[in-house]
Amino acid sequence: AMKINQDVVLRGKKVTLVPYTFAHVPRYHEWMQSEELQRLTASEPLSLEQEYEMQRSWRDDADKCTFIVLDSERWPEQSEENSMVGDVNLFLTNAEDPTVGEIEIMIAEPNCRGRGFGKEATLLMMAYGVRKLGITKFEAKIGQENEASICMFKKLHFKEVAVNSIFQEVTLRLDVSDQERQWLLEQTNHVEEKSYAELKQPAGVLDT
């Protein structure tokens, strides 16, 4: 199952990715009450109980990998819930081809948009997918009106491959050639990978 990342922290310059845990659900649920986010993520509002269910399925399903995006400036000085800015997901939806990953990024906090958080979080997740999950092809499906997101993926070398006028959705794709792989690893060579359990332990606890 996709518990591969349950102890993984990826710390970049602007953002830090941590596993999606029970403690993140209330804030996440609060975000998803926003009609704008529901529209941008094409999702239905859930009850808090359903959101906890979802969090469990995210953790246990073999075809999903998800991280909560924290603001690196705030965390770990502030609590994770106060540092949350969004989430990033990778779905392994193609049963025939496990090397295809569909990537989704959401920067939910309006004051954190347009500051490069989404870009770095996406790069961190892509590099993780390439290194740890054997992904060689990425897809992103984005609502046609979400121009900022489409533009960001194009900057990350994705090409538009299809437009679905019924769902009003654009599909972008990136095949990870050797050259692209090298570029991706260079873009993320500042990232530190740490143990979530150890970071959550207050100093001194590990000595016992």
From TrEMBL:
It catalyses: N-terminal L-methionyl-[tubulin] + acetyl-CoA = N-terminal N(alpha)-acetyl-L-methionyl-[tubulin] + CoA + H(+). The keyword Coiled coil does not apply. It holds the Pfam family Acetyltransf_3. Keywords: Acyltransferase, Transferase. It comes from the Eukaryota. InterPro entries: Acyl_CoA_acyltransferase, GNAT_dom, NAT9-like. Its EC number is 2.3.1.308. Residues 15-159 form the N-acetyltransferase domain. It is an enzyme of class 2 (transferase). The keyword Ligase does not apply. One of its GO terms (molecular function) is tubulin N-terminal-methionine acetyltransferase activity. N-acetyltransferase that mediates the acetylation of the N-terminal residues of alpha- and beta-tubulin. Belongs to the acetyltransferase family. GNAT subfamily. This is Alpha/beta-tubulin-N-acetyltransferase 9. It comes from Vidua macroura. The gene is Nat9.
